[in-house]
Amino acid sequence: MTKHGAAFALTVLLVSSLSGCFGGTPDDYHYSAEDAEGYTSDYTLDDPLFNLTLDDRGEVNMKISELVLVVKQDGVSHPCEAEGGGGNCTVTQHGGDNDALWEMGETLTVTENGVNICGGTCILTFTLEGPDGSRTTGPTVLTVN
User: Fold this and answer.
1) Total structural domains in the chain?
2) What ranges in the chain are assigned the alpha helix state H?
3) In which domain, by residue range, is 98 found?
4) pLDDT of the residue at 94
5) Are residues 31 and 55 in contact, defined by beta-carbon separation less than 8 angstroms?
6) Alpha helices of 18-137 — where are they, by DSSP H?
7) What is the CATH classification number for the domain harbouring 13?
């Protein structure tokens, strides 16, 4: 198994054993995270970093406007915003029926936005906040290849 293959297998194992949840009031939001397809590079500033999928255990969709995502790499915080906004990384929706909601089963992709957050392989930490300032208690570390 190649170095990248082993790192990816370890990442999948780690991420699949952890799932996140928001301790929101009155709703709970559960999500999963995984490495995005593709390879991150020092030479490009628009690499896909990871995917987040809203799981159906919470049985409620989340307003995209209430999602706050900050990625950290080597002690530097990178705020992420919805596609078309500013921020050092972009959150893009894939699928779903309503662009204003992160719907159950819908996947969001977090991508660099003009800033080299991860080149090659790196370990990212991230925080998610949802409605009423709720924070995740699940996976906050992700190895990206």
Assistant:
1) 1
2) 3-17
3) 3-144
4) 84
5) yes
6) none
7) 2.60.40
Q: How far apart are CA 51 and CA 131, in angstroms?
A: 20
Q: Is 79 helix (H, G, I), strand (E, B) or coil?
A: strand
Report yes or no on whether pTM surpasses 0.90: no
Check residue 75 and give left, alpha or beta (phi > 0: left; psi -120 to 50: alpha).
left
Q: What is the DSSP letter of 40?
A: B
Q: What's the average model confidence in pLDDT over 4-16?
A: 42
pLDDT tens digits, one per residue of 85-96: 889 999 999 888
d(CA 128, CA 108): 13
Residue-wise pLDDT tens digits, 88-145: 999 999 888 999 999 999 999 999 999 999 887 888 888 888 887 555 544 555 666 5
Q: Are 9 and 1 in contact (CB under 8 A)?
A: yes
Q: Which residues of 127-138 are buried (b: 16+ CB within 10 A; e: fewer)?
A: ebbbbeebebee
